Amino acid sequence: MVTSAPETALPTIETLSDTQVEAYLRSHPGFLTEHPSILSALTPPVLRTGEEVLDMQRFMIDRLRREVETLSDNHSNLVDSSRVNMLSQAAIHSAILRALEARTFEHLLEIVTGEFLKLLDVDVATLCFEASDQADESLASRGVHTLGPGGVAELMGAGHDVVLRGTVRRKASVFGGRAAGVRSDALIRLEVARAAPPGLLALGSKDEDRFHHTQGTELLRFLGDALSRCLRSWLNLPG
What we know:
about 240 residues, alpha+beta, Beta-Lactamase, 5-stranded mixed β-sheet, 8 helices, about 10% strand, elongated
């Protein structure tokens, strides 16, 4: 009977000797080139050149190690930032798709003030429009917050479509009875139609770090544009 020779067990990390490690590296001269991250875990030897001679080799290796660590940290931060951006994009798209499913203006208002809270991870959402002879009475009867003349420009400032505030002031006109719990907010300009008064979508959070001025605003601006078109359709207003 022919029997196969027993397989030789591969040495584990605990059983590898210095000689085995050296032999492996000598037979695989490109190993460290293919796995450069290992260099950051190794302690380079001190070059003995005399008491008064600076070891430049060790200095350069230490610098390269720090650069590898910095690149690794930057890569991790980039991955984290990309993940957050993808989640934000998915949330905004979900909110817009839900708004498009509204069956009436009142239903749209319910979606914005109710379902947007979970979809956008906020604690309060409102629609606000300045008082207008043409539309104020109709909008107020449907539960939209009313601002005084020039109220949107005063809150948003000139040339801003989105304003992110970490320290919120004068919230009552925007969030009404739920203003007390708001610690940060996002104000998004709504350009419904030339015949409609200036308006905005206000998103408020109890978390003071939820919105801040260093965040990007492109996705929120897109949300405002999409919501403006939904409102224009239901209010039967020309563009």
